[in-house]
Design brief:
5-stranded mixed beta sheet, 10% strand, 56% helix, Glutaredoxin, alpha/beta, elongated
């Protein structure tokens, strides 16, 4: 390996870490929610530090500082990431590594993840055992110190201001076996201000509402969204409010293909998990009180009218 190839490999590896860490910070909620699914609280405490570490490693590689030490650390880091994902995949059937947050086109299958990390580890080993040495890689001039300090501090700032560890340490208030009972106890016949829904919507006593809780990509959610457009056309209720979760790519697909005629807002994954793990779910509200729920796909407009008459 000549020096130019060595430096190219170092730059590419550093760029990977820098990009991976930056994307995790941008989409920190998706990353933390994924880490939560490993069911090990210790992981949640350490998770916010991972993108900061990745960015620091990337900057040091691109600046070519402390090359041998940072490449050795890269080998350890890749082994750690690969082992953690292997545990999640085989123990909890987690198929998303979360390497690049919620960017859909960068998501990869477990096989591609293992192949990619194998390739990155090979790069790191080649760099570590190469006889090539970077001149003055232990000398940090003032511009280097400024760049490294700035990148670390700005990363800590964004992670710190966007991360609420306590939210991810809480257990779900229901299991999938008792979720219907949970909705009955916490929502049905309750004033909306007594429920968690009051954090996201407000109602008026003289109006009726449907709160449609959905995911951008589930088939029943898509068909129900089309039916909601029908409800709006026929003035079935006064207001329809949607609460959803999903990636930016899923949102673009949804808006392009469904063209919803109702307002909706995106919640963080952790916020949505406090309401339901089943989609779609719809609450009917009248007199500021949640009267009933519709679990699953919404009926057509005529069946919905009959449902209102029976309530």
């Amino acid at each position: 390996m000549n020096k130019k190839i060595y430096q190219l490999f170092l730059f590419l590896l550093g760029s990977f870490y820098l990009f991976s860490g930056t994307i995790k910070i941008i989409d920190i909620d998706n990353f933390l929610y994924l880490i939560r699914s490993y069911h090990i609280k210790l992981f949640i405490y350490f998770a916010p530090a991972i993108p900061i570490v990745e960015i620091t490693v990337g900057v040091l590689m691109i600046l070519r500082k402390r090359v041998k030490e940072i490449v050795l650390f890269s080998i350890i880091l890749l082994a750690f990431f690969t082992s953690i994902f292997a545990y999640g995949y085989f123990a909890h059937h987690i198929s998303d590594c979360g390497c690049f947050g919620g960017i859909d086109f960068l998501k990869m299958s477990p096989l591609v993840f293992f192949l990619r990390n194998g390739l990155l580890t090979s790069f790191s080993l080649l760099l570590y055992f190469s006889p090539i040495k970077i001149k003055n890689d232990t000398i940090f001039k003032l511009p280097h110190i400024f760049i490294i300090a700035f990148v670390i501090l700005i990363s800590i700032f964004f992670v710190g201001t966007r991360t609420h560890i306590k939210d991810y340490l809480k257990e779900r208030p229901y299991t999938f076996a008792n979720i219907d009972q949970y909705h009955t106890n916490e929502f049905i016949n309750k004033n909306i201000n007594e429920t968690i829904l009051s954090k996201y919507i407000s109602t008026s006593k003289d109006s009726t509402y449907l709160v449609f809780i959905f995911s951008y990509k589930c088939p029943h959610c898509l068909s129900s969204s089309i039916r909601l457009n029908e409800y709006i056309k026929n003035d079935g209720v006064d207001h329809i409010v949607g609460l959803t979760k999903g990636s930016r790519g899923e949102k673009r697909f949804y808006e392009r293909n469904i063209k919803p005629q109702f307002e909706y807002k995106s919640l963080r994954y952790i916020e949505m998990s406090e309401i339901t793990g089943f989609f779609p779910l719809t609450f009917y509200i009248e007199n500021d009180t949640i009267q009933f729920k519709i679990k699953g796909a919404l009926p057509d407009y005529n069946d919905f009218k009959e449902l209102l008459l029976k309530k």
